[in-house]
Amino acid sequence: MRKLLYIFICSIIYSSCSKSDDGGLSQSTDSIPSAPSLVYPAQNQLCIDNTLEFKWNTSTNDDGSSVVYIFEIATDNQFSTIITSEIQTSLSKIVTLEKGVAYYWRVKAKSSKGIESDYSPTSQFYTEEIPNSNNLPFSPDNATPFVGQNFDGVNTIDLQWTASDVDKDPLKYDVYFGKDKNALTLMLEDTEQTTLQVTADTPQTTYYWQVTVKDDKGAETNGPIWNFKVNSF
To answer: What does the pLDDT look like over 94-107, one tens digit per residue?
Structure first.
């Protein structure tokens, strides 16, 4: 009789520990917040002031936990030179910047459980124009390959990039490529094309490339040095 009573008590304890109040197995799921979308300044915007109210849309979180926002401004689209990095609880932030400068900004969400979203897509903009000046082109973006991409079984790679100018000036490009990022070879000069096919001649090697953007008024912007690796042919 004691043995039966012991089994009965143990079964009750096991049942209460392994099931939730709604009769199902207890589970804890922490969701990843959605990436915020940027509102203002918009992509390629020429602002009429240098004191700006940055605005973004709310992040959603399925587990109901609250979020804060990590807000960043940089002077390059790789965010290697960040001039503002702040945690915000609201959906806006007023910042005063230098006039006539290209900036890049992005936001990501972080839940109260410490889980971070992806960054929003980056937006680039110019602050209030300096009179009688020509704005530099925005820094170029690499479309393909992505930074650090690995290739197997190929040695012919298509490089593609994009660029824009807030003044809508026509653009041309110088393209550099090579194995030594400190001594790249000029492959194209003053080209209007935005693609270049290159050949990698050594396996297990990292290759580097860079694009300089130039407008028709003599202004130019050097892009970051990107890289990819060819593992095998």
So the answer is: 999 999 999 999 99
